[in-house]
Structures are given as structure tokens and as C-alpha cells.
């Protein structure tokens, strides 16, 4: 028995996946295709995706935002778990990678749920606020450039309703955030974000050590 969160070696990780992962075939195909791309490490882990699917289900989420799409694994998960009239505003700027996402959204029959905005995410979030959509979203997933996290979070907090959830990826950053010898810009940005959100009384939080670290922030 232990009072600390277990570190997962390969044997224990493989066991975890073997007894818990229920990955739809379309998601498995997308994950395996993405593994061949140069930036494959940007895709979330399948067990994290399944956890996020459960969060969307528990929230009964209908209106959602994704900041950082890549090849569409996480947005496909969301699309599969919101209702038929659900909506995902998907923010990215890569035509190349989101073309893969579009292909899989269409194959899964959920393309009509995804509103892809190919523009800087801050512009898209501000556009949503300008359109009067503050306080109307149920769920936001942030997984983009780390130096932008504080701004993405600030705008997302305005867009989600009371009781809505903001989920932020990579907050443990392969352990670099805890190593004072590492001072690159991304790591420093994540440290600053983690420190800021830990004191933000507007939300209830939990940093979950799944995959590369996932912060859950529920708007009060």
C-alpha cells in the first residue's frame, strides 16, 4: 500500500490499459496513423482520452471548445460523446494536420458537430466573447502552445458557464516543471500557469497525474 500516486512502469501501464481501455476502432486507427507523423508526441494518450470522454459524459456537455486540434484525436473523442446537436469549436492554425482530423470526423459521422476555426486561438476565443457567448460553454480542453496557456485559460473562464469544466494538458511536462535546473520558456510558462491556477478562487481544481498531467478546473 502507498499514500502517494504510483509511478507507472511499463508493466503496470500495460496492465492498466489491458483492464480499462475501451478505445473505439476509429480512435485506434487515428492514433496509429498519427504515430507515423513527426510531431506524434503531441497526441494525448488513449487512457487520457477515455478519462476525458467520461468527464464530458458526466457534465452532460453540449457546447465545447478545444484549443489545439492537431490530428483530431481529442476532438473526435468529444464529438463522439456530446449529443447529436452538440457543438465543438475547434481552434487550430494547421491546414495539414487538421485535414487528417477532418477525414476522421467525417468517417466517424460527427463532422457536423465540429466548427473548425483556422486562426490564432486567442482571436477565436475573443470572437466568441464578442458574439455574446460568454458563460454558455460546458467544457474546454486546452492543449496548445504553452506560453499561451494563461491567456487561453483566462478567456475560457469567461466562456464557460458556472459548473463548467476547463481541462488543461501537459501541466507536469515530463517532470520538467519540478526541476529547477530546467529554465526553457515552455517550462517556465507552465510553472507560472500552475502557480496561478493553484490560487484562483474562481475555480475548484485538481491536478490529475494521468499521462503528462491534466489540470481540471471547475468554474464556481
Oligomer: single chain
Task: State the distance separating the first and last CA atoms.
Answer: 35 Å
Instruction: Write the H/E string, N to C.
Output: HHHEHEHEHEHEHEE
The outline comes out as globular
Mind describing the biggest β-sheet? 7 strands, mixed
Indicate the proportion of strand residues: 15-25%
Return residue spans where pLDDT drops below 50 for at least 5 consecutive residues.
none
Tell me what the structure shows.
- The chain is of the alpha/beta class.
- Helices cover 42% and strands 20% of the residues.
- Helix 3 packs parallel to helix 4 and helix 6 (121-130) runs parallel beside helix 7.
- The longest helix has 14 residues, at 46-59.
- The chain is globular, with a radius of gyration of 17 Å.
- The mean pLDDT is 97.
Give the gist of this structure.
This protein has 220 residues and is of the alpha/beta class. It is 42% helix and 20% strand. Strands 3-2-1-4-5-7-6 form a 7-stranded mixed beta sheet, with helices on both faces.
Provide the fold topology.
Layout: H1 10-20, H2 25-34, H3 46-59, E1 63-67, H4 73-81, E2 87-92, H5 95-107, E3 114-118, H6 121-130, E4 137-142, H7 149-159, E5 160-169, H8 185-198, E6 203-208, E7 214-219
Parallel strand pairs: 1-2, 1-4, 2-3, 4-5
Antiparallel strand pairs: 5-7, 6-7
Amino acid at each position: 500500500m502507498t499514500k502517494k500516486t504510483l509511478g507507472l512502469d511499463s508493466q503496470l501501464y500495460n496492465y492498466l490499459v489491458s483492464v480499462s481501455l475501451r478505445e473505439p476502432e476509429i480512435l485506434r486507427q487515428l492514433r496509429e496513423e498519427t504515430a507515423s507523423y513527426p510531431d506524434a508526441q503531441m497526441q494525448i494518450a488513449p487512457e487520457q482520452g477515455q478519462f476525458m470522454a467520461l468527464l464530458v459524459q458526466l457534465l452532460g456537455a453540449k457546447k465545447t471548445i478545444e484549443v489545439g486540434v492537431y490530428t483530431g484525436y481529442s476532438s473526435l473523442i468529444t464529438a463522439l460523446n456530446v449529443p447529436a446537436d452538440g457543438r465543438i469549436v475547434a481552434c487550430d492554425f494547421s491546414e495539414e494536420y487538421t485535414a487528417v482530423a477532418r477525414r476522421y470526423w467525417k468517417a466517424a459521422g460527427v463532422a457536423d458537430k465540429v466548427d473548425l476555426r483556422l486562426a490564432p486561438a486567442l482571436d477565436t476565443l475573443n470572437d466568441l466573447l464578442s458574439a455574446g457567448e460568454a458563460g454558455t460553454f460546458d467544457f474546454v480542453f486546452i492543449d496548445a502552445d504553452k506560453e499561451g496557456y494563461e491567456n487561453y485559460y483566462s478567456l475560457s473562464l469567461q466562456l464557460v458557464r458556472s459548473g463548467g469544466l476547463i481541462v488543461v494538458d501537459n501541466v507536469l511536462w515530463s517532470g520538467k516543471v519540478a526541476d529547477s535546473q530546467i529554465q526553457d520558456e515552455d517550462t517556465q510558462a507552465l510553472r507560472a500557469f500552475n502557480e496561478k491556477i493553484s490560487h484562483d478562487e474562481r475555480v475548484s481544481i485538481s491536478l490529475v497525474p494521468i499521462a503528462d498531467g491534466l489540470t481540471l478546473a471547475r468554474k464556481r
